[in-house]
Amino acid sequence: MSLSQPSPAKRARIDEDSESSAPTRSDVWHSDGSVVLQASNKQFRVHWGVLTMHSSVFKDLYSVPQPDLPGPMVDGCPVVELHDDPEPLAHFLRALYNPALFSQKTLSFDVLAALIRLGRKYDCQELRKASVERLISEFPTTASAYEAFREQDLVSPLSLTSSSTTLYDAIQLLKEQHLLSALPVAYFCSHITTRRPRLAQMRIVSGLFSRPREGWPMRDSGAAAYIPRMFAADLFAKKFAHCPECAEEVRDSVSAGRERAWNDLPSMFGLPSWEELQASDEI
């Protein structure tokens, strides 16, 4: 065998590599679609009309004059190569065909992250806005919204507060997309899910209450530092005060302290005020 002839083993490996890198159809494949998008080795058959309706980027791309010699075609459709990861792109394309997506009770973080990132990249303003609002709703920016979220034992549709890993990803996404008003509560939730949640709760929650008035017949005036959530004023007064007059003063003190602590929450994490954070959001 001459040196110019490749060995059978090498030939087999090349054939296997070529086969493994061949494009494959994704589950986003509309038989009457007019364009095939390709990301890595995954192809998606969709409609130009749907893409251009939602995205100014695809609208501009569609209007570009085509060369006389057509490029790659699949089933009579032009192939457009995109430099995106296939899985997020699949989430993005499914959302374009599913207007009821945001009415679903639960959505995964991976789906929302894909819609926010690719919605920005391809200038799908309505899709990105709906995705951002859904994500931010997991991290209330007002004390009343936070209390409603916690006191009713609402379970996060994204289960963000149950996973420190997902919370870390969410915080990175919020910073990357400049959605800073959600960071204070996101940081607070991440502290609660650390290995020392009791200490984290003490540091944050200890500022939720005004200093008890001297002589109040409370069962434990220091118990406030150990409360793991923002109790409603009525519940706190009922638990720790012995008489109606004391309960009323406790209720007022709890409300005032809670409001002060909420206003100070961003500064506890080195962030600007709530007003500045909300003004800087890129929604």
Written description of the protein model:
α5 (109-121) runs antiparallel to α6 (125-136) and α8 (164-176) runs antiparallel to α9 (183-192). It is elongated and about 85 Å long. It has a 5-stranded mixed sheet with strand order 1-3-2-5-4. Helix content is 51%, strand content 8%. It has 13 helices and 5 strands. The longest helix has 25 residues, at 244-268. By secondary structure, it is an alpha/beta fold. The chain has a domain at 197-280. Residues 1-18 and 195-232 have low confidence and may be disordered. It comes from Mycena chlorophos (Agaric fungus). Residues 1-28 are annotated as: Disordered. Residues 31-105 form the BTB domain. Pfam families: BTB.
Q: Helix/strand/pairing class, anyone?
A: alpha/beta
Evaluate the radius of gyration. 27 Å
Enumerate the strands of the largest sheet in spatial order, edge to edge or round the barrel.
1-3-2-5-4
Question: In which range does the helix fraction lie?
Answer: 40-55%
Largest sheet: 5 strands, mixed
Number of helices: 13
Mean pLDDT, to the nearest integer, reads 77
